[in-house]
Amino acid sequence: MNHINQLLILGGTSEAKEFGTFLKQREMNFDFSLSTTPNTDYGFDYTIQPVTGISCQNQLFQISFENTQEAYRLLIDLTHPHATTIAQMIDSIVYSASLNETLWRFQRKPCLEGDETATDYRELAAFVIKQRARRILSFMGYKGTKRVAEILEQRQYNCIIMYRSLKKIMAWEGNITLIQYDFQPKQIHSASLMKALLSQIKPDLCLLKDSGEQGGTQIKKSVFIEEKLPYIGLKMPIKQKGRVFYRMEDLKQAIVERYAEKK
């Protein structure tokens, strides 16, 4: 591993796609990594290989993938706020004064606060029981929904959980009934379509992850309040280590300035 790459983007969000498009338009060189196959065309090259390890030595990031290892001078984390595996890898890196020069991260603004949030899946399950909810609509994907269902099963609580997932899921073997829906993103990013969905499904409680405005959380929240439908969301983790950006405009400007310095 003698070659040193300049830039790796860890993607998986709309902001990552936007940023990759921005770099391509300016003919900047970069590697772009995704853990799963995207549902839309990106318009630039990317690789699909989950990251298995991240370390930083001598101001270089050593990124381990399933079948290879690469070195990068700059790592930009544009993963989903709830991408806990990547977050844990980054949080395990020993802090150094130079880390802000080699690790950049984008942080979405939370939409939920206070009593609207739960810090973990056990709190979510406890809220379900407290509300005595029997028909639950989950926007937490299969994995998140399954974790809540497993906790409810342990507490011998019976209910139906309808969840959104675009991926084909293996059969669930628990006593709680899980029903998969594959409605498209436009249905949860439109208030009118969201209302129509709730009218069809008729849940008495909604579960979600706070994914920020970009993830449709604000629209969901507004509709839930208008429809007087109880809801609770998994609290958005806050990225702290490295140089954190809160606006895409600032991140774009920073990368333009950095590349200009290299010329």
Features of the shown structure:
263 residues; alpha/beta; 8-stranded mixed beta sheet; 6-stranded parallel beta sheet; 9 helices; 14 strands; elongated
Topology, please?
Elements: E1 4-10, H1 14-25, E2 31-34, E3 47-48, E4 51-57, E5 60-65, E6 69-77, H2 84-91, H3 99-102, E7 103-106, E8 117-118, H4 121-131, E9 135-138, H5 141-154, E10 160-164, E11 177-181, H6 185-188, H7 191-201, E12 205-209, H8 217-226, E13 231-234, E14 243-245, H9 248-262
Parallel strand pairs: 1-2, 1-6, 2-3, 6-7, 7-14, 8-13, 9-10, 9-12, 10-11, 12-13
Antiparallel strand pairs: 4-5, 5-6
Q: What can you tell me about this protein's structure?
A:
By secondary structure, this protein is α/β, with parallel strands linked by helices. Helix content is 34%, strand content 25%. The chain contains nine helices and 14 strands. The strands form two sheets. Strands 1, 2, 3, 4, 5, 6, 7 and 14 form an eight-stranded mixed sheet that branches. Strands 8-13-12-9-10-11 form a six-stranded parallel sheet, sandwiched between helices. Helix 4 packs across helix 5. The chain starts with a strand and ends with a helix.
